[in-house]
Amino acid sequence: MTRRYLVNFDGRRIPWRSADVLIVGGGVAGLRAAVEAGKRARVLLVAKRTLGESNTQLAQGGVAAALDTGDTVESHVRDTLDAGKGISDPKVVRTVIREGAARVKELIAWGTKFDRRGGEIHFAREGGHSRARILHAGGD
């Protein structure tokens, strides 16, 4: 009997990979999930093309975090709620900003090369923020 496939290749000739966790997407969320899951399980991460080609890589802007001297999570929360014009959930905003700052500190500890001036991380000021708290890598 001849086997028929919906595609013009024999699936038995495709290399098999085995993992405990499958992560689809090689952007920052997928990579972060892989790091965490990899502490307890064998991880397979798949992407459409290469790991360097993701929406994260193509996104413009930086990441906002209340890390600069004199900045606070509460100030960042106020700015975000003001910019949200009443449609942002304060509890969610507070959680995301608090946890976001912790994740950015983690990225710094891992060696992420955020832009620096005079050896210190450079914080830029962008729309909606009352102070400079945007970190960029490579100017973007």
Order of strands, main sheet, comes to 3-7-6
**Number of helical regions:** 4
The N- to C-terminal Cα distance equals 58 Å
Q: List the helices and strands in order.
A: EHEHEHHEEEE
Stretches with pLDDT under 50, minimum 5 residues: none
Residue fraction in strands: 5-15%
According to DSSP, the number of beta strands is 7
Overview of the molecule:
With 140 residues, this protein is an alpha+beta fold. It has helices spanning 28-37, 55-58, 73-83, 90-109, and strands at 21-24, 43-46, 63-64, 116-117, 120-121, 123-124, 134-135. The strands form three sheets. Strands 3-7-6 form a three-stranded antiparallel beta sheet, covered by helices on one side. Helix 1 links the parallel strand 1 and strand 2 (43-46). It is elongated. The protein starts with 20 loop residues before the first strand and ends in a 5-residue tail after the last strand. The mean pLDDT is 90.
Helix and strand layout, with pairings?
Elements: E1 21-24, H1 28-37, E2 43-46, H2 55-58, E3 63-64, H3 73-83, H4 90-109, E4 116-117, E5 120-121, E6 123-124, E7 134-135
Parallel strand pairs: 1-2
Antiparallel strand pairs: 3-7, 4-5, 6-7
Helix pairs in contact: 3-4
